[in-house]
Model the fold of this input.
Amino acid sequence: MIKRSVTIMRGCFGGCAFCALALHEGRQIQSRSQRAIVEEIAHLRDTDPTFNGVISDLGGPSANMYRMGCRNPEAFRRCQRPSCLVPKPCRHLDSDHRPLLQLYQAARDVDGVKKVLIGSGLRHDLALLAPAYIDTLVAHHVGGYLKVAPEHVSPEVLAAMRKPPIEALERFMERFDSASRAHGKKQFIIPYFIAAHPGATATDMLEVALWLKKRGMHVDQVQTFLPTPMSAATTIYHTGIDPLRPHTTDAAPIFVEKSASGRRLHKALLRYHDAENWPLLRDFLQRIGRTDLIGDGKWQLIPRWQPPGTGQRPEGRRRATRAPRTRDDHDPR
Done:
């Protein structure tokens, strides 16, 4: 997809705890001119003999931050917020999507271009501020699937991630589906989720699994958190403390799942539909007293039966004997 994609901007003001993009590229968005972008599309058309008329992406770190940023230079100079969007959009944020819509139109108008797709991940909470953008996106720029990154559903975990509440994704999904029906298109959202992020317990991951099950979603775009340089989540991973939250010496630390067995369980819960994970999930549900989620009912998470040849543990792995931590184990609330 990179061969026929065009970068339109750099930087990100999202401020996700697990991401260091703002430190690499800055919180202030640096956008290319519409003219330069259109000229690059024409150059791709003229120099690539295999060009099929499809631009695979117009994007960057986020697909929809083009020419956006703080409208108050003095406020930006003094600002210490890690995110312009969380816990809610800043009043100084210029979230006007019209320059981006004009760019999309100019790209579609290039001779020889049949389709311009958006392959970069979309900031759905930002898109909610511009219904016209969602409608244009659905009408012209989704190639069947659209990437968004809710990452989790638990309010506590989302707060540690510095991501918007899951209700923002649900509202976006409703508008996306409504616009798709209005345009006579059958299109889908690919949600990204993270397992074992600092703050997430096994019961939090079960909450994600049940959210997915309720909506009939089987996700493959998942990852298990790894501490990486310069991200706030790495600090939480190593210290058990969120440096950006008020805390005292007697405050309960944030739980971090570091054991290999616990991390496997977190990922298995995201991929509850994979029969290879069912023995592990049955064992977990039995240990926490949630056998009501085992069975063939519509809202039960996994069945009691096991397909032949599946669910075999790889050699060398020992079965976990310690029950996974739950929120009640470490949260005095």
User: Anything to note?
Assistant: Confidence is low (pLDDT under 50) at residues 315-321. The first helix runs from residue 21 to 25. The radius of gyration is 22 Å.
